[in-house]
Design goal:
With about 160 residues, the protein is α/β, with parallel strands linked by helices. The chain has a single domain, classed as Metallo-dependent phosphatases (Purple Acid Phosphatase, chain A, domain 2, 4-Layer Sandwich), CATH 3.60.21.10. The protein is about 20% helix and about 35% strand. It has helices at about 15-25, 40-45, 95-100, and strands spanning about 1-5, 30, 50-55, 65-70, 75-80, 105-110, 115-120, 125-130, 140-145, 150-155. The longest helix is centred in the N-terminal third of the chain and has 11 residues, at about 15-25.
Length: about 160
């Protein structure tokens, strides 16, 4: 079993994200852009953990790639901010298709500042919401089981 703490759209509001990461018990940390440099803080704070990150549409002179394909336990995952796939609070079809096309069972994205946990075709879509700007600040704790099953809890940031 693998646990991943997933954050997006932190926009430099790092203290709540770092506190949630510290309390999460996660094996892996993922930052999905809009202030991709915030992932550097995760790497510094947790040097013994793996940290994956991608850049977002508000990352000027980004240090992270626009998309990343990784294995989280037995699950192939597409990590992206989402803007390149035209995601909105009501539409994730293009992203689900892109994930399916590369054989990913999981697509993690941000951009909309709204948490999502849903299945579309053979792809689980998870958006942790926003860790930085919005009325409700959230993150996601994603559990990948050894048999490839995926579970997600959307959690509020303090």
């Amino acid at each position: 079993m693998l646990k991943a703490a997933v954050f997006s759209d932190s926009h430099g509001n790092n203290f709540p994200m770092l506190e949630a990461a510290r309390a999460s018990g996660a094996d892996v940390f993922i930052h999905l852009g809009d202030h991709d440099r915030d992932a550097v803080l995760l790497r510094r704070a947790f040097p013994d953990k793996t940290v994956y990150s991608v850049c977002g549409n508000c990352d000027f002179d980004p240090i992270a790639p626009e998309r990343l394909v990784v294995h989280l336990g037995p699950v192939r995952a597409l990590l992206t901010h989402g803007h390149l796939y035209g995601v909105s609070p009501w539409q994730c079809d293009t992203l689900a298709y892109a994930a399916e096309e590369i054989g990913a069972q999981l697509a993690l994205f941000g951009h909309t500042h709204r948490a999502v946990y849903e299945q579309l075709g053979g792809v689980t879509l998870i958006n942790p919401g926003t860790a930085g700007k919005g009325r409700e600040l959230t993150w996601a704790l994603v559990t990948i089981f050894d048999n490839g099953a995926i579970a997600c809890e959307i959690k509020k940031l303090a």
